Write the structure tokens for this entry.
Amino acid sequence: LDIGDSSHRSHLSIESRLTGMAVDLPYPLTKPASSSRMLRLSMELPFEDGLGRLSYGDDVSSVVQFSVHDGQLGVRRGEVKMGGGVARLPEDDGISLSGTLPYLSADEYRKWMVSLSDGATRSARDSAGKEGGMAHGGDLKRINLRLDKLDVVGRQLSNVVLNAEKEVDHWQLQLASDEVAGVIQLSDSPTQPLVMDLDYIKLARVADDTVGDTAREENVSEEGESADPRQLPPLQIDSKRFIYDGHDFGQLALRTSRHPVGLRVEKVGLISRHMVVTAHGTWIVVNGKQSSSFNVLAQTDDLGDTLELLGFKKSIRGGEGKGSALLSWPGSPAQFSAKGLDGTLNIKLEDGVVVDVEPGAGRLFGLFSFQALPRRLILDFSDLFSSGFEFDKIKGSFSIEDGNAYTSDLFMQGTAAEITIEGRVGLGKKDYDQIVTVTPEISSTLPVIGALLSSVNVGAAVWALQRVFAPDLDEDSQVKYRVSGSWNDPQVEPLR
């Protein structure tokens, strides 16, 4: 303690290495009892307009200017600097937070701030009516941070630059990172939406091989790493680009509201060059376990390009159509997986070509490679499918239970054949158990054969045969197959 005279302030200084003391605070403030870290605190007396300085190892430096109002001590202005460097007083009132760090968890600091807020509320209630105390000023007003990694709402952002200003009733944030960039408005009121006007959102796919089993067995505990929808504010998000698993889905619009046990998704809209998707649903927590349920409508004017956009091999050329689905799965929306999926799916497609189908989108519907069909009894129709199956219409419905899609009415109509498919497709196990019926359109090929014959009389005779026997020819050439085994190696067995 250095006591000054009438022309100089007194100074109070405290130093400690905190040896043997554990600090249970988020990084970079945390410290085990086994290590030491220098804490230095100095204050000018009297407090009014005096300065206070605090440093904590090499990680934190801070300076504040105190004020006294109606007998109560407060903070007029100050700065907290993290990651090295010396804090300096800002020109404007309020507290500034700045610095450069390799890592920060906004989720952990939010929990800490909630506990501080609860403690401050109790303290204010206990000291109501008492004189003295610290009851004004000291509000955080500005944030300027550069972070290698930032954990927020269960996601990790990389190469983050965050600049924020406190307005009257909200925070205005400018965020740039590898995953998200744009302007964010965070209201002081928990009932008001978090508004995000973004240039892009980039999300990585959660590993399909692990999430499905884990989510199904554990159903994603509320103590897990996924964000808790009950703690999220209403969301109003617009992004010029939404990129998931490296695929650009175009513009995104998202609106949510509170749900008694989670979050209600009022609207999800995606608009890309060839696809429009709209959906609504819920993300809830029941008995400590999360689940998601969505009603989805999709429309495309180029199914082949849309499949590529979704990350599948281009197993269909061209084609337009629409589909609807009611789907539910354990876990958050981001933890969507075919394993454990339940619901219904309806599709209607027109005017495209099913080409050689590698494992991917076509396999979801049982559209295996048509070149894999063996020779049909007497006639060989492999030439009809050698360049793919040109279809006029594909239509069908699926019932999805525990990651298995069942159909009894998948129907494909094309110039070369009609194909019906019944049975199961394992979306999780990626396998088949189906009966496929192929009815080649023999009658439609007879005029072509006749035109190739040199004799006009023979061509006329073929035409006459088509008129008399066409229905029987088509029906007699019908062949059934059992398709089983994996998507990678389907086993096709002729039944008739």
In short: The radius of gyration is 33 Å.
